[in-house]
Amino acid sequence: MPEPLDQTGLLCNPFYETKEPLGRDKKGNPRVSPGQLIWAHQVYPPNRPMIIEVQGYDPRDPSKTSYVFRKYDPAKPPGSHFPVKELNLRSDENLYVMQGKLRPAIVLQTITTDYYNQQNPEPYVWTAPCFTFKDKHKQDYRCRIAAMQYPHLFYLPAHPSGFSEEGVLRFEHIQPIATDGVQPVFCNSKQSFLSDTAWAVLQHRLSLFMTGKVLDASLDETVRAYAECLLEAYGLH
After folding, report:
1. Tens of pLDDT along 24-76?
2. How confident is the model at residue 117 (pLDDT cuts 50, 70, 90)?
3. Residue 95's CB: how many other CB atoms inside 10 A?
4. What is the β-pairing status of strands 37-44 and 50-56?
5. Do residues 121 and 79 lie in contact, with contact meaning Cβ atoms separated by under 8 Å?
6. Helix, strand, or coil here: 31?
7. How far is CA 40 from the centre of its chain?
8. Confidence class of residue 87 from pLDDT cuts 50, 70 and 90?
9. What is the dihedral of CA 152, 29, 96, 67, to 10 degrees?
10. Which helix or strand (DSSP H or E) is residue 129 part of?
11. Phi/psi at 143 (5° precision)
12. If residue 114 lies in a helix (H) or strand (E), which one and from where to where?
């Protein structure tokens, strides 16, 4: 019988590690850093944009503002409206509706930007969301993901120092999250991170996905050897 799907120990051991908490900033937002495991409010857009269009706005009584929820129609785009101060909504902007949930993710980068407001810079976390396997995902498909046969998917094993369930980072859903919308993953009062080696492999795969170029030739050979071992174990050559 093939060994369990998680053979990441052949590639990097350990895969996860724990560190002392990074604390919070002056505004009370959690401090996080690249390679850290977090929970984040992730969204994913529908096939066709859904908007909440402002129909009427009374600045004297915002409670009388009316909205219409509809699919965006490029043939009938919404017109401009009075700015809605309570929502910080400009005259040429609309509210968009997207599905989402609190899900596990990996921090790719953090940034505090003053592009919009130089007096009150905005902190963001660039995240790669993690999705768990479902019944529809057959074992050979899961194995090929673990063997890094898909450039946009990155396998994460379950571990007491990491996530409780095995899953997959989906690079196509990488997105920025306001820092207030993330929370670190804790393990026995410490915070969870990818190990240095696992973080290096993730960066290597992400760079390959984004540029089509190999970031580290030596590491790429190691990843290929690992993939061959896993595929052979499952008879998927």
Report:
1. 998 899 999 999 999 999 999 899 999 999 888 777 887 888 899 999 999 99
2. confident
3. 14
4. unpaired
5. no
6. coil
7. 8
8. confident
9. 170
10. strand 122-132
11. -65, -40
12. none
Which range, of 90-94, 125-129, 147-151, 217-221, averages the lowest pLDDT?
A: 90-94
Spatial distance between the Cα atoms of 218 and 92, rounded to a whole number of angstroms? 50
In the chain, what is the greatest distance between 2 CA atoms, to the nearest angstrom?
72
Q: If phi over 0 gives left and psi between -120 and 50 gives alpha, with beta otherwise, what is residue 35?
A: left
156-166 b/e (C-beta count within 10 Å ≥ 16 → b): bbebebbbeeb
Identity (one letter) of the amino acid at 143?
C
Structure tokens at 203: 């960066």
pLDDT tens across 129-167, in order? 999 999 999 999 999 999 999 999 999 999 999 999 999
The burial class, CB within 10 Å (0-12 / 13-18 / 19+), for 125 is buried
Contact 125, 72 (CB under 8 A): no
Q: What pLDDT is recorded for position 236?
A: 86
Structure tokens at 224: 């290929």
Summarised one tens digit per residue, pLDDT across range 15-32 is 999 999 999 998 899 999
Listed in sequence order, the residues at least 6 apart from 54 whose beta carbon sits closer than 8 Å to its beta carbon are 65, 66, 67, 78, 81, 82, 84, 89, 94
Structure tokens at 220: 């790429």
